[in-house]
Amino acid sequence: MRDIVAAVAEQQDELASLLRSLDDAGWATPSACDGWSVADVVLHLAQTNEMATGSAQDRFAEVTARLSEGLAPAADVDEGADLMVAKERGTGFAEIDARWQRSCADLRAALLARQPGDRLTWVAGELAARTLGTTRLAETWIHTGDVAYGLEVELEPTDRLWHIARLAWRTLPYAFQRAGAEPPGPVAFRLVGPSGTAWDFGDGDAPTVITGDAHQLCQVAAQRRSATETALTGTGPDADRVLELVRTFA
User: Which residues contact 43 (CB under 8 A, 6 or more apart)?
Assistant: First the structure.
């Protein structure tokens, strides 16, 4: 667990570096998330960190019930997240920052207390503790980019993306299921990481192969870019649908 928790901590630190010097106007700046300010994004991360900590401590239902208390039933995960943020919107910026920082530390401690293969409850069903850590890395990375976009800061991709690219590959069956599509056949990713290293996921004889820049693949899986806007290429029977449906969040 230590390697994925270390990656989560590094990603949290990158976001903290963007928030450290913000004044009230900075916190109120619109992010890349439609309708959400920088403060809303950080509040959402605090809430979902608390949910993940609850999951690692076998208290997921309890924490989720507290966060959603008084809210109307949500049609899907995205609407539920929006409702939870709206419920607490208006909380002071300093309080949001302190809550997020506290939630980061609590999450890391809770994950380190589990074994990688421990089965935990999460939004999309049961998953391994290590996978939960990877989903937190992915979501924190996505929203760090959303904040950076709002603040007009250019961030350099790092090799932490290896975990996120692997998550995108491993969860393809879920991505297809969520879209109501038949699961794909074997798929391989042949990617190049930010440091120039080859990142290969999947068997060499997989009929569908996605090739290209790992950062771009992660952006597509985060639904922050369309595959048609990238240099990613795909061959094989499921290539187009993989590039359309791949995702790294519930």
Answer: 85, 88, 89, 91, 96, 99, 100
